[in-house]
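Query structure, 521 tokens:
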């Protein structure tokens, strides 16, 4: 049995979750579910990043303690994941002692080995990004990342000797093409590494920021939030706590991240691991952003889409499907009401939902609500069968290469093709004419296609595909071996009545305002 360890970024608890967070987590869930379908032993980790300036600021604004701020917000994330059918195996909060203990042990070890040293530092500091920048990196005296004003700060701090690992990292990235994906992100990191790499300031004096993990060797300081947060990927599977479990899961197979946090994951994190003597994760995959119009959807831009709102109108599965099919992994994608309705009506209401309702209706009226017997397949049936089995055959390749959108597009094409098959063979006329044998073959072929397609789509739409499968008396959860074979559906199985799986959306379902501004409650 292969193991598969997938992570999401751990999200800040300064505000409630939005579609950007939901997207990464759904993507991780879809990958986890595909790997489970393929028989892998899966560990899927998500969680929350609870320390640092952003959280301290949010707590102050809301008149709460930092812990209250974290405790309140974490509930929203957990509720949303439950609502979105997320099947994570662990949820880590960086304020938990199982995490803080490991961060402190790592810091002490690196300090003892002089990988961390103390020095006076003056530099340009951005409060929003919690980062120091070199003068040459500033953009017109502003933060190059968020364009807000920076402050010149002089203070004693602790530094991680990151710079000396630069050549090693360049070499590692060049030797391991699968390490940073997509390829253009890899080139971006190599470009970044062409300049000098500074040592990393890993402390914050408590008088400036009190909310963090105390340095074990100097109680006047807390740990820089990124040095704390990245460690979640090893503290959760048991680093320095449960050697057996840690050896089973580490290294991670994939860290899924948005493109906004690439440097921390492809420069800081590998160097931290190297200094600790740990192996590298197999892949860091950076996806693009969901945009509203042309802008990144973000809390600070005030243009976020509230997932709860949206799901109430369209259902969880359609929402998951849209996010997965509409974003080519790596690229940005735009979220608009129009594209949502168009996609939903085309793929789900008109094609998949319609195919199911056609097949079940005729089975009800002409086959006594049972799966009919089939004759030997003719060339049309064989072509359809080959097509759908070929999609199953390609499933693992699509999943391993992060081409979920391609896999979904294949399935949608097959469903469309099956509807065309029905239009050509006209089972409603076969039924009227009493051509029972041919009618059985046509309906059986369409139902088998639905069985296999529902299996392929199950990791993306688990609830709806589970319902679809139950219509034909199939187990809700598919097994890959059954998807690889034609003829699994048992003639004689009772066909249960089903309300429309995806009712057509005739009018805007998402409130106006996505284009123009915030729609959060
Ligand atoms: N806490 C850090 C991550 C630490 S990981 C060790 C952080 N948190 S965050 O709450 O800001 O979440 C960032 C992540 O949310 C992005 O990397 C991305 O996965 C997701 N997204 C946030 N906005 C997004 C979009 N508009 N579109 C797509 N995903 C985005 O950074």
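Result returned for the query:
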């Amino acid at each position: 049995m292969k193991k598969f360890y997938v992570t999401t970024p751990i999200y800040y608890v300064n505000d409630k979750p939005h579609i950007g967070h939901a997207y990464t987590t759904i993507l991780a869930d879809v990958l986890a579910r595909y790997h489970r379908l393929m028989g892998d032993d899966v560990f899927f980790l998500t969680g929350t990043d609870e320390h640092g300036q952003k959280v301290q600021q949010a707590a102050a604004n809301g008149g709460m303690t930092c812990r209250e701020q974290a405790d309140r917000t974490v509930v929203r994330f957990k509720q949303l994941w439950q609502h979105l059918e997320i099947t994570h195996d662990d949820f880590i909060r960086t304020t938990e002692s199982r995490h803080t203990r490991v961060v402190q042990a790592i810091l002490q070890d690196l300090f003892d080995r002089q990988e961390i040293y103390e020095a006076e530092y003056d530099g340009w500091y951005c409060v929003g990004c919690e980062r120091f920048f070199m003068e040459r990196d500033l953009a017109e005296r502003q933060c190059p990342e968020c364009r807000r004003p920076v402050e010149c700060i002089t203070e004693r701090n602790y530094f991680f000797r990151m710079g000396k690992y630069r050549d090693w990292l360049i070499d590692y990235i060049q030797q391991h093409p699968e390490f940073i994906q997509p390829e253009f992100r890899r080139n971006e990191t190599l470009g970044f590494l062409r300049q000098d790499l500074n040592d990393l300031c890993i402390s914050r004096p408590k008088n400036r920021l009190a909310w963090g993990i105390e340095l074990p060797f100097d109680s006047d300081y807390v740990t820089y939030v990124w040095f704390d947060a990245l460690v979640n990927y090893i503290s959760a599977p048991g680093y320095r706590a449960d050697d057996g479990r840690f050896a089973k899961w580490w290294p991670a197979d994939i860290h899924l991240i948005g493109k906004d946090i690439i440097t921390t994951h492809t420069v800081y994190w590998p160097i931290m691991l190297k200094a600790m003597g740990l192996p590298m994760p197999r892949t860091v995959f950076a996806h693009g952003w969901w945009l509203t119009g042309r802008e990144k959807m973000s809390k600070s831009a005030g243009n976020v889409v509230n997932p709860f709102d949206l799901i109430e109108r369209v259902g969880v599965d359609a929402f998951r499907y849209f996010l997965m099919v509409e974003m080519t992994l790596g690229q940005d994608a735009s979220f608009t009401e129009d594209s949502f309705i168009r996609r939903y009506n085309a793929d789900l209401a008109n094609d998949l939902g319609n195919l199911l309702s056609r097949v079940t209706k005729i089975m009800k009226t002409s086959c006594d609500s049972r799966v009919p017997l089939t004759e030997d397949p003719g060339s049309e049936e064989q072509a359809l069968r080959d097509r759908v089995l070929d999609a199953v055959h390609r499933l693992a390749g699509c999943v391993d290469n992060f081409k979920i959108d391609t896999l979904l597009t294949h399935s949608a094409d097959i469903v469309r093709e099956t509807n065309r098959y029905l239009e050509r063979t006209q089972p409603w006329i076969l039924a009227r004419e009493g051509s029972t044998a041919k009618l059985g073959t046509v309906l059986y072929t369409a139902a088998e296609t639905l069985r296999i397609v529902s299996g392929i789509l199950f990791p993306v739409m688990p609830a709806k595909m589970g319902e679809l499968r139950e219509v034909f008396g199939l187990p809700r959860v598919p097994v890959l071996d059954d998807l690889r074979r034609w003829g699994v559906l048992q003639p004689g199985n009772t066909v249960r009545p089903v309300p429309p799986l995806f009712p057509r959306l005739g009018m805007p379902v998402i409130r106006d305002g996505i284009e123009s501004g915030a729609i959060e409650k």
